[in-house]
Amino acid sequence: MRRLRPVIGLLLIAAFVAMALLASVIAPYDPFKSSVEVIDPPSARHLLGTDELGRDILSRVIYGARTSLIIGLGAAICAMGIGVPVGLVAGYFGGRVDMLVVPLIDLFIALPGLVLALIITVMVGPNLLNLVLVLGFVMWPSVARLVRGQTLALRETLYIEAARAVGGGSAWIIRRHVWPNIMRVVAAQFAVSVSFAIFTSASLSFLGLGIPPPTPDWGGLVRAGFDFLSLNPLMSLAPGATVTATVMGFYLTGSSVR
Amino acid sequence: MNGTAPLLEVRRLRKWYEIKGGVIPHLIGHVQAVTDVSFSIGRGEVLGLAGESGSGKTTIGRCVLRLIEPTSGEVLFEGEDIGTFGPERLRKFRRHAQVVFQDPFGSLDPRMTVGEIVSEPLEVQKLFPNSKERRDRVVELLETVALSSEFLKRRPRELSGGQRQRVGIARAIAVNPMFIVADEPVSSLDVSIQAQIVNLLEDLREKLGLAILFISHDIVVMEHLSNRIAVVYLGRVMEIGPTDELTSNPKHPYTEALLSAVPDPDPALRGKRIVLEGDIPNPVAPPSGCVFRTRCPRAIAECAAAIPPLREISPGRAAACIRL
Amino acid sequence: MIEPHKLLGVRDLSVRFATEAGPVLAVDRVSFDIARGETLALVGESGSGKSTAALSLMGLLGAAGGATLSGRIDLRLKNGSTHDINRLSARELRRVRGNEMAMIFQDPMSSLNPVYTIESQICEAIILHQKTAWPAARRRALELLHSLGIPNPEKCMTSFPHQLSGGMRQRVMIAVALSCEPRLLIADEPTTALDVTIQAQIIELLKRVQSWTGMAILFITHNLGLVAELGGRVIVMYAGRVVEQGKVAEVFSHPCMPYTQALLRSLPRLRRARAPRQRLQAIPGNVPSAVDRPAGCAFHPRCGFAAKGMCDTRLPALEDCGGGHLAACLRWRDIASGKAA
To answer: Which pTM value belongs to this model?
Structure first.
């Protein structure tokens, strides 16, 4: 099972990315185009049925992968962009920077990410860019904490002291010794961040604070299908399943790296 | 910079670590790692720094290279106080003063190849900007420490302990230093490998005219390599002098006990054994007066009164004991 | 099975480990005896198999650790019967450990439980094996600590392991080991982590303890000087095999196996200015890894006397080179007579 985890994870990620990139090829219909077949149950023409505006649900779910990919990657990149440098500096130099950063990180981590994202989204208004920024902002402290901890441990190693002894400056040591040694862990955290971002954005959309319509996104699709659960349960279940599978894919991959 | 001045001079070096405690953290004491240690090393000279755990010998080695900042005291390298060096001057200083660590497992970055490890000092010091020349220099260095160029692409975990220590030595001599701190360079190696490394250090000293501060708990290896020996106990120098005089005729009771505790394959050669009572005291609260008095077989009441100064007994020879 | 004055007889002991790199023969057909009250030193470098051999004597290497043992380890118990350690049940083994033989390790911290006081750890060992009540066990513990030269036994009893120095912890371990009066003490590098002045204390202590209790000591070390200090007999191991054995004085003054000879020559010795400084005679090459051992005599790639077509193909057996002094070298006669180049 240990060895299977990353394999399953990577397969799920591959499926997700393929779905996002090849959406226009695999989707049977235009996800924005309405038709007269409103709230049709699953059929050979519409494998998952249609929604209240007569749009093909399968196509919308497939295109929803694009939105999730953009949000997941974008937010994780933002989180890394802030978290990694902050963690490196706080961990390597310690002292005053560290004394300032640590309480800040602790404060952020004490607040539940979803609630924080919810509050900020209400303030700035929901759109794709804002969502990416908000989620990145919510996630950077956990990245910073991880990087700081790893750096702190490395700073005490003999080989870093050896690098200082040959005259290596801080920038050199961070680039040549600290970064290569924490890269794996950071990559794992990146995957976990992507999964968190996709999950949280879906939750926000479900609460009506996600991507505004008509752009298809999974959280929004789940919510839209909710009203028709008795007529066509797949309307909610299908996007719900893709969210779960994708989040799991990134999580399994990320958590299998030690 | 005149020719007769020592290469390195340490004056009243002190390193006390603060201990904070309490609900509102405040200073509650000091770990007195090193207290008022002075010595000097000439060009091409090997000074042995002998001591047991808690003697502060490793701390002294790090202060001398300014890998840690001393609490007080001065370290002069070629007459200049290294404590006043800014970052750029410090980097230049590291071209002349290098270090070999005890643990060849921990001191090599596991992710780097042997070639990268040995070329790092050259890159940092911008010594061979041409990468072809730099590679040639790395191969030359590996040959100097008796490793072939096959090792260039290997990683530390693929090497034996002795081979790793050779890589550590190659890295230290890469910049062509005048001075090396060797901190227990053979203690973690197998018995049959130790002699190889001791011989290598000896060769390098001759070939490169290296001055070495040889730090060890093993006074036998030290006797073999050093011109002079300083014996430290609880962060203070007990005795210092030329190797042969000090080992054949130890003056300080601690030196005597240390020498007598060394087991030899031929017990007849060891002479009378002096087994010291008790443990090494805690450096947070060292004994008053002479720090060795609690274990000293010759201690008298006066030993507790004042810290005995290091007094010269003969030219180049000094001991800190009031009972001489 | 073993002669009456023998306490322990090891016959063709082999220990195999299954590792990722393939099967490793850590101990290869090792045989030796320990007589009552005797001191036997097992000396070797890393990978020589000395610690593995010691652990298997205690029955501490089992299938759980991926080890396969073969051969016999006959131990004579206090009641006079002999048993093969390799064939004892886990329950019987537990009774033998402590009562019949005890072990002390290089790092006493790892064999003491950090959350219990010294008192509870020593008393527990006593109660477990001797079925006495706590007050009696406590008296015995105090007595032991006192006799082991611990300055303030009462205070030591209430301490936790981390509050003691390395030397004190090793004394406590010795007390635990002695608490049930074993007839064999296995000491695995007990002074390696200690300072030389403390090492001297522990060695003196072990010798003293041996003189009152008459127990046998199996001392495992890499330090040849310590072996000489202890006296008795010595077994030199290299790459999992016994390469030389005999009385310490005899082996050290006239080593027959080139490895022992080279090892003794490579050691720096305290000159005390009596002799001029000489270059150390280093042994070339590296200690072979257990996964990849040379064919024939494992020492031949590093040996100055190795003969082609002989030492690299044939495994030398232990031969008597005079008065019970055994060596495993195909060329020991040539070497001894100076005929070997």
So the answer is: 0.87
